[in-house]
């Protein structure tokens, strides 16, 4: 038994060790991922629930690691935030997304914004406003064609956040609150911030399949958003049932596998040319 216990200790410590080795490997890899061209943006269409037209696209990062294969953003974005690497990576994401959007415009595809996720750490970086301004200037993208998705957690530092949001709004950038409903926040403070859109988190859209009490929560969020004059987007729509419920309750925009998975830019271009021509 003692031996077994001994083995267990060895087993656990080597597992823990294994995790930290992987983390260190990932961190080192992440530092070089940009220059090694391993990062790529995919784009997921956002669809008007009234017309079925594509009215936006969200950029989502992908990391193709030479040894570990595909690493999902939920694994390396937190690491990038922890290490501060999110600042240079975030700037790269902004540049790539704006360049891509500009390229689509040069192909005659226009009339919708490109949505880019912004981490709290990146948003709170003192150079963030400067980065956004630089990227818009360098790519020549109109500020009104860039949308930034920011989570509710920025309101933990409300003074700084309001100032940054106001600066972005003054620049003409569109502002969306991502993962809405998952934070501790209420809609009430949002009306004092220059927000344009709220994105209802997938976890609430998942509930549409279930009991009516859950459904009414989605309806409540939509109604509050509409009352405050926000554009309301629902993410993670997978079924027709969810789509119908959201349409019936006047949600403006939808995003999810029901319409399309996130795709490489080239494939989104085909969808855009086909659907919005
Ligand atoms: P998010 O911003 O809430 O993005 C939505 C996630 O749901 C994406 O996962 C998307 O691929 C996935 N999704 C969309 N529709 C459906 C659906 O119908 N069903 C299911 N099951 N999933 C759906 P992804 O791309 O793995 O990204 C996960 C998270 O990683 C994002 O959540 C975001 O928080 C973060 N992330 C992704 N790209 C970036 C980025 O460029 N910058 C930053 N800062 N974070 C990013
Ligand atoms: Ca998002
Ligand atoms: Ca989400
Ligand atoms: Ca998010």
How would you summarize the topology of this molecule?
Elements: H1 2-33, E1 39-48, E2 54-65, E3 69-71, H2 73-83, H3 86-106, E4 114-118, H4 120-123, H5 128-139, E5 146-151, H6 158-171, E6 174-180, H7 187-190, E7 197-200, H8 202-206, H9 212-227, E8 231-234, H10 240-248, E9 253-254, E10 263-264, H11 265-275
Parallel strand pairs: 2-4, 4-5, 5-6, 6-7, 7-8, 8-9
Antiparallel strand pairs: 1-2, 1-9, 1-10, 2-3
Helix pairs in contact: 1-2, 3-5
Write up this protein.
The chain is of the alpha/beta class. The chain has eleven helices and ten strands. The chain has an eight-stranded mixed β-barrel with strand order 1-2-4-5-6-7-8-9, surrounded by four helices. Helix 3 packs parallel to helix 5. The chain is globular and about 50 Å long. The N and C termini lie far apart (72 Å). The relative contact order is 0.12. About 3% of the residues have low confidence. The site of one calcium ion (CA) has 4 residues, from loops. This is Histidine kinase. It comes from Neobacillus kokaensis.
First-last Cα distance: 72 Å
Shape by Cα distribution: globular
Strand order of the largest sheet: 1-2-4-5-6-7-8-9
Name the helix and strand elements from N-terminus to C-terminus, one letter apiece: HEEEHHEHHEHEHEHHEHEEH
**What compounds are bound to the protein?**
ligand C2E, calcium ion
Q: What about the largest sheet?
A: 8 strands, mixed, barrel
Helix-and-strand structural type: alpha/beta
- Strand proportion, as a percent range, falls in 15-25%
Round the mean pLDDT to the nearest integer and report it.
Answer: 90
Please count the helical segments: 11
Stretches where pLDDT falls below 50 for ≥5 residues? Answer: 5-13
SS elements, strand count: 10
As a percent range, the share of helical residues equals: 40-55%
Radius of gyration: 21 Å
